[in-house]
Amino acid sequence: MKKVLYIGWIGYKNLGDELMADLFKQQFSTLGESYKLDFVNIEHKYLKNVSPNQYDLIVLGGGSILSGNGNLIHPYIIEYLYNCLSINKKIMIWGSGIDWVPKDYIERLENNVEIPIVISNNFSAKIKQVFMESVWSGVRGPLTLKVLEQYGVKKDAHISGDPGFLLKPQVNSKNEQINKLQSTLQRNEKIIGVNWGTSFNNIYGEDEIAVENQLADILNQFIENGYFIYLFSVWRQDFPSIERLYSKLDNKSQVILDQNLYNEYELMDILQNCTFTINFKLHANFISLAANVPFIAFGYRFKVFDFVKSINYEKYLISTDDQNIREQILQLELDIVNSRSTILKNLNVHQNSFRKSIIEPFNNGLYI
Fold first, then answer.
1. In this structure, how many other beta carbons lie within 10 angstroms of the beta carbon of residue 173?
2. What H or E segment, with its residue span, contains residue 95?
3. Kind of pairing, strands 63-69 and 72-73?
4. Nearest-angstrom CA–CA distance, 41 and 10
5. How far apart are CA 364 and CA 368, in angstroms?
């Protein structure tokens, strides 16, 4: 029996993190009964209680789990993986990415300027060792890769894309509630799906209300222009924020506030009815992509910029510290309507490419 441990930010019913664990589990099931899979939350308080001794492979799962705080990258996950190597255990990095770092890092990285990361020589050696000895080191996007290069990781990591690229609609995943919702949506020719929520103001600009007010203004204009608005959440903690956004919309007859939480496949079924989506949370964009619907992404943290750069989609990203969010959304709506088929064609090329990359470890029996 080959035993594998998956590490991710799981157990909090945040759809983005849960769907990545689900996607790993789905691919893992193709390996057969001689493989066994366990999960553990990435947080140190959980991770410290799990011994790697009983596992053949330890997987740092997809998501924003190489995380920073100001100019400091949290070292404990690298320490854990390094310790796994020290007892001759195999490790793998599956679509992980760096997050929670300052906005000015992005411009610095784009211009190949050094970022002011704070690390010890000891930690620098450990992170290089982790990536060098990992059986497969795939990261979310080019910004993560550039940060790692500044840590000294040169050739031992590659851009695999986020595991969310594996999402595909499932046949017969609808239930009576979703069928009823779709019947309502399908009576409208133009629909905008809107994901709104909170990161507790830990966003670029540190002002979610300012973003929300501009979003409400442009949604009111879209309603006047004949659009129907579908509001949805991907995390229970997002409910107060999206309810507040709903309260700012004038013509409620042209709006659905969906206060249900769906799994990724149910949500794909619903979003397939949309002309395009506007999304706060990262993986709402992946669900829209899987539903073959163009999206506008709010760049609220580093990980969203990393994602859109991986698919050359920067044009459709709006940073949450921008002062002209309303005008940008208005312009992008025109672009999406006029170029929808071309946008989707380009997105599908990237999606198919990353799908092939992210399943590579499973095609190789996870190298164990």
1. 15
2. strand 90-99
3. antiparallel
4. 5
5. 8
Q: Which helix (H) or strand (E) holds 178?
A: helix 176-185
Residues of the chain where predicted confidence (pLDDT) is lower than 70 = 66-74, 118-120, 172-173
Residue 282 and residue 307 in contact, taking contact as beta carbons nearer than 8 Å? yes
Ramachandran angles phi, psi of 132, nearest 5°: -65, -40
From the number of C-beta atoms within 10 Å of its C-beta (0-12, 13-18, 19+), residue 298 rates as buried
Residue type, 257: L
Strands 276-279 and 255-257, by their bridges, are unpaired
Give the pTM. Answer: 0.96
Cα within 13 Å of Cα(150), Cβ side: 21
| Best CA proximity match to 270, nearest among 297, 231, 240, 244 | 231
Cβ atoms of 116 and 104 within 8 Å: the answer is no
What pLDDT is stored for residue 151 in this prediction? 85
pLDDT at 173: 60
Position 165, amino acid:
F
- Of the candidates 38, 74, 70, the residue with the CA atom closest to the CA atom of residue 57: 38
Token pair in block for residue 321: 């510290």
From the number of C-beta atoms within 10 Å of its C-beta (0-12, 13-18, 19+), residue 250 rates as: exposed
pLDDT value, residue 118: 65
